Write the structure tokens for this entry.
Amino acid sequence: MRLFIILLSFLVMPVANADHHLLENNRRILVLGDSITQGGHYVHYLDAWLVKKFPNRRYEVINAGVSSETISGLSEKGHAGGRFPRPCLFERLERVLAKTRPQLIIACYGMNCGIYQPLDPQRSARFQNGHLRLRAAAKQYGAEILHVTPPIFDNHDKHGFDYNSVLTAYSKWMAQQTDSGWLVADLHTFMSQKIAAEKTKDKKFTVQRDRVHPNKQGHWIMAQSIISYFGDTNVSKFDNGGQLLAKKNMNAVVKRSIAFQKAIHAETKPLRPGVPQGGTLSSARELAKTLETDIYQAP
């Protein structure tokens, strides 16, 4: 009977609990992604959760997301009005890793990787190979990597080709890689379920007015998915990520995050025009020290 109880406890244990070690030993965290990541809100919420959950630890979370970027190296004709092709992560990855020396990489790609076209074996292979290349680079630097499946594409129930089907296929492939030891947070399924539930109450509900970029509510759904992966499902009680901390604390977290984001881009010079840059990682770390009280002390 005792053995049965022990086995049952393993069956009901959230899978995410097995990955708590990611946050116990890895304090330098690098977040990679496209414009959704560059937008930053879900990274701010994740950073704020780390402050709330582990007030005695000091994490360094660097958001290195770049708008328009892919992991597949593909670009559609006339992208950005023909001004420049989509940037590829691997043009800058070595520079970013050398500067940040991350212990944990959180990577969220896919939205741009299929270049908004129907599912295609060659494009799918490029997406898959991109993840394999990123894994190899992470291993070279001794970093663990958490692959995050892409957010949904909200087609607003319009008829015709629905690009979300491509992202679903990409996400299923990623989830299957857990059989090979990959760490995968299935944001796509998590977000799909959340949005579908809301649409049953209001058909016009959306967190992506342009079908691609989530608003703050959408970013909070994204953050919840990643936080849940780390074993904390209690965050669902908060209506938005801003409730994780008092306003003063949250503002300081965002200020610190933006400083690191601008600094890593200033030091690594991504090719895409218009990426915010400023300062250095050293100056961002100095700012982080001055913000300690505002971040960690209860108002």
Strands lie at 28-33, 60-63, 104-108, 144-148, 183-185. The chain has twelve helices and five strands.
